[in-house]
Design brief:
Elements: E1 8-16, H1 20-31, E2 36-40, E3 55-56, H2 63-67, H3 72-95, E4 100-109, H4 115-127, E5 133-135, E6 146-156, H5 158-171, E7 175-178, E8 182-188, E9 191-196, E10 199-208, E11 224-236, E12 249-253, E13 259-264, E14 267-276, H6 283-297, E15 300-314, E16 320-325, E17 328-335, H7 341-357, H8 378-394, E18 399-400, E19 410-411, E20 422-424, E21 429-431, E22 438-440, E23 445-447
Parallel strand pairs: 1-2, 1-10, 2-7, 4-12, 10-17
Antiparallel strand pairs: 3-6, 4-6, 5-6, 8-9, 9-10, 11-14, 11-15, 12-13, 13-14, 16-17, 18-19, 20-21, 21-22, 22-23
The chain binds flavin-adenine dinucleotide and FE2/S2 (inorganic) cluster.
């Protein structure tokens, strides 16, 4: 990380995280003339952005119906943010020569019991004049009794998109330091000091574009739930016949089981089987369930790839974009996209850069973390229950070795707040059921709010 004296960096703004949120924020800040440094702990391929399904949509399954519970003003702000983010992303990627494919997005009712959710989505769209349409016979080979269609959305190859934006970042002269993990965020009178694995970063302002903020910063981890989902990519059988119009759509079901579909050239992408991180004992079984469903409904040949990724949902069903602590602009955050972050991560970049450059977006205040009181709910209570149960178990200092025998013996006590990690067979990782930190078989930290590795056993 050596730039000045070998252990310390200085900048107007330090952006932590180089997924879509951090990349867009840093790009726009640099375009606005700010001196920006970006640090990231891990390679681009491991970001949630790169491992997403790549749908850039304002429809977002049933999310608009949940956002609508906050009233028309908040709903309008949420949609305006998504529209700004999606517009920026599509325009920038097209300028960079990255393919952006126009698709209609469908939210699908698999059974009659899901129709009420679709009504709520249609009503939310109508309230903000988003031209969604009811469709009685959607072009799908899967069970469907109706769908909401929003025309003119898009799909991208997320890894290619992120890679092109990262190249642009470097062309704009932004200093980028990979392999640097932030371990502590400390506010000082002149701004913020970051303690990292590569030394110290001093900045006037810091943007934590890390999914969940590192450590316990701002207590925001208490308002987030880490959710993991699986994606599979399939070759279609040579003589595969799919309903006319299927290839012009991307879709997700409104009810269970959640299934997300898109095409990628000649390939089919199928996602679903989401669960709270660390609370699924049979992760390999989740992929088997996805495989069985796909083979039942699609004329598929071989499965090419399968992976999982995680994103964070909030207590309010709104993203948290703005000051980590009320009234203090030194540390800004952007998280809580609930698996719909491509449009809204770009929006977060616009909001946070605009805020720091003195050009605030008018829709941004409604999405600030403290714009409304935290709203603890049943999932919050379940997390607290897990935490307490883990503390009881942690008293016996549990340890373990990866069942595959590939790792070293590690303490199973999560260094974040004492959760007891469990083995994730599919990802070959130790996952914490409390706030979603994940560690390799060797105990090395991969993601989540923890800032240290698992201790050796
Ligand atoms: C399976 C799945 C499918 C999805 N599909 C879609 C979709 O089709 N459409 C859509 O809109 N959204 C989708 N999403 C959601 C979307 O991908 C995310 O909301 C979005 O990519 C989040 O971007 P981000 O930049 O905030 O986080 P990330 O892309 O995860 O980037 C965060 C970065 O922060 C770094 N970091 C973390 N902690 C530290 C630290 N302490 N120090 C230094 N660096 C750190 C990480 O290494 C990482 O590079 C999906 C999510 C999942 C899980
Ligand atoms: S992630 Fe918080 S206790 Fe493990």
């Amino acid at each position: 990380m050596d730039e000045t004296d070998g252990t310390s960096l200085r900048a107007d703004v330090a952006v932590v995280g180089r997924g879509l949120t951090g990349t867009v924020t840093a790009l726009l800040l640099a375009e606005g003339g700010a001196d920006v440094v970006v640090v990231d702990a891990r390679p681009a391929s491991t970001t949630t952005t790169a491992r997403s399904t790549g749908k850039v949509s304002l429809l977002q399954g049933t999310r608009l119906a949940r956002v609508a519970r906050h009233g028309d003003e908040v709903l309008s702000s949420y949609v305006a943010a998504g529209s700004a983010g999606a517009g920026w992303l599509r325009g920038t990627l097209r300028d960079l020569g990255v393919p952006v494919e126009d698709r209609d997005d469908l939210t699908v009712a698999g059974t009659r019991g899901d129709l009420a959710s679709l009504d709520a989505v249609l009503e939310a769209c109508a309230r903000v004049r988003l031209g969604a349409e009811w469709e009685g016979d959607p072009p799908l080979p899967t069970p469907a009794v109706g769908a909401v269609r929003l025309r003119g959305q898009a799909q991208v190859q997320p890894r290619a998109a992120l890679s092109a934006l990262r190249t642009l970042l470097q062309e704009r002269g932004v200093r980028v330091h990979d392999g640097v993990r932030v371990r502590q965020v400390r506010r000082v009178p002149s701004g913020v000091v970051l303690r990292t694995t590569g030394g110290t970063v001093r900045a006037g302002r810091v943007v934590l574009a890390t999914g969940v903020p590192p450590g316990r910063y701002g207590g925001l981890f208490l308002r987030l739930e880490a959710q993991r989902s699986y994606l599979t990519v399939w070759e279609l059988a040579p003589d595969a016949a799919l309903p006319d119009g299927f290839g012009q759509t991307m879709s997700i079901t409104a009810g269970e089981p959640v299934r997300s579909l898109r095409t990628a050239g000649d390939l089919l992408v199928v996602g679903g089987e989401g669960h709270v991180v660390g609370r699924e004992p049979d992760t390999a079984g989740r992929v088997e369930a996805l495989d069985a469903w796909t083979r039942r409904h699609f004329p598929v040949a071989a499965r090419r790839r399968a992976w999982s990724a995680q994103d964070y949902a909030t207590d309010t069903d709104l993203p948290l974009i703005g000051p980590a602590l009320p009234g203090d602009d030194r540390v800004l955050v952007a998280t809580g996209y609930a698996k719909w972050g491509l449009a809204h991560a770009a929006a977060a970049g616009i909001a946070l850069s605009g805020r720091l450059l003195g050009e605030p977006a008018d829709w941004a205040p409604a999405l600030e973390p403290w714009a409304r009181p935290p709203r603890p709910r049943a999932s919050t209570a379940r997390t607290v229950g897990r935490q307490v149960a883990c503390w009881v178990r942690a008293a016996s200092r549990p340890s373990g070795t990866a069942p595959s025998g590939s790792g070293t013996p590690v303490s199973r006590v999560c260094p974040h707040l004492g959760g007891v990690v469990g083995w994730n067979e599919f990802e070959q990782s130790w996952d914490c059921p409390v706030h979603g930190s994940r560690f390799g078989a060797d105990g090395v930290l991969r993601e989540g709010p923890a800032t240290e590795d698992l201790a050796p056993a």
